[in-house]
């Protein structure tokens, strides 16, 4: 190991104090370990230039024990303790500690130097040192250690009985005794590292830590009848003022056994071959800057007890709100025409949204196209056989069926029709969307108008 003189050490420390570099920079510059540079700086700050003068110390057993007790009581590292007591080699403290735990104060006494002399055969058994011959410091140190060991073993046996104690049980005993005995000594008895102890201690409180959040997650899940996954539940929790990560919500939902009941969504399309088509003016530009700029529409089918019910809605691409809808047991033109009249009635005179649909026969009817021309609305149609051109409308149908139709049982189409009206009201007013900043469509539109 390379020896460095006092002048060199002071030079390196002075460079650090003059901000000519940090520990690692100076270590690279002089070919040193950065831990060595840090140790020199700490020793200089604690003891000045005297810290680097040569000294030949022979520490007494009492001094070693006082250093160890100070380290244990203040939960200091070897390096911190060495700096405070001006001990050049921090590693020697671990030797002292092992020696004391294995042989008490006698093991800390320095061994005689030089070559051992030949031992004569003892004629009688040597006398064991009596308590009167031992120092008060020795007796107190041994008494403290025995008390700690006795308390530890008693508590551990009460927890684990004759069986071998687990890490969790050892952690509990150390935690209960740490207010009365040195932490380092307890960890030695338990054969636990400090990191393991604190990790196990954190696990004990994890269940209580998320108790309130679990209750909130369960309430939100039940309120929305299993339709919300962990992302929407996270958004609702955040709206109530709690900061939480979506990964935590996902993990806690797994612990609670909660899983969204929504089925995978499917795209559907309805096509016809009569009348005239219109060009695809929308071009899959499904974003709108304001309300009533871009609308989409389509027709979907439900089957209940052998009977069918058809739904014709119109959706605003600005916030995903259902502007108007109509249902019928047959896919007649009057259903689409009535839906369109309801939607047009909600427009202001200056509002002329583009209305996009597929190439269904209802949208090719001259009467339908005449309604649009009279209000100066631009008609747009998907390309033939391409459902992705009307993906926003198909997406709503997927959500509707996954969150409502597949999760409920209906005895008649009348019951289904009533349920559809309730769900669409819920979809517009209560169901939040993450892309709408955690607001429902109506809330988002109202907030934009207020601004």
Automatic annotation (TrEMBL):
<feature type="domain" description="Integrase catalytic">
    <location>
        <begin position="275"/>
        <end position="449"/>
    </location>
</feature>
<dbReference type="Pfam" id="PF13518">
    <property type="entry name" value="HTH_28"/>
</dbReference>
<dbReference type="GO" id="GO:0043565">
    <property type="term" value="F:sequence-specific DNA binding"/>
</dbReference>
<dbReference type="InterPro" id="IPR048020">
    <property type="entry name" value="Transpos_IS3"/>
</dbReference>
<feature type="region of interest" description="Disordered">
    <location>
        <begin position="106"/>
        <end position="133"/>
    </location>
</feature>
<dbReference type="InterPro" id="IPR050900">
    <property type="entry name" value="Transposase_IS3/IS150/IS904"/>
</dbReference>
<dbReference type="Pfam" id="PF13333">
    <property type="entry name" value="rve_2"/>
</dbReference>
<dbReference type="InterPro" id="IPR025948">
    <property type="entry name" value="HTH-like_dom"/>
</dbReference>
<dbReference type="InterPro" id="IPR036388">
    <property type="entry name" value="WH-like_DNA-bd_sf"/>
</dbReference>
<dbReference type="InterPro" id="IPR036397">
    <property type="entry name" value="RNaseH_sf"/>
</dbReference>
<dbReference type="Pfam" id="PF13276">
    <property type="entry name" value="HTH_21"/>
</dbReference>
<dbReference type="InterPro" id="IPR012337">
    <property type="entry name" value="RNaseH-like_sf"/>
</dbReference>
<dbReference type="InterPro" id="IPR001584">
    <property type="entry name" value="Integrase_cat-core"/>
</dbReference>
<dbReference type="Pfam" id="PF00665">
    <property type="entry name" value="rve"/>
</dbReference>
<protein>
    <submittedName>
        <fullName>IS3 family transposase</fullName>
    </submittedName>
</protein>
<dbReference type="GO" id="GO:0015074">
    <property type="term" value="P:DNA integration"/>
</dbReference>
<dbReference type="InterPro" id="IPR010921">
    <property type="entry name" value="Trp_repressor/repl_initiator"/>
</dbReference>
<dbReference type="InterPro" id="IPR055247">
    <property type="entry name" value="InsJ-like_HTH"/>
</dbReference>
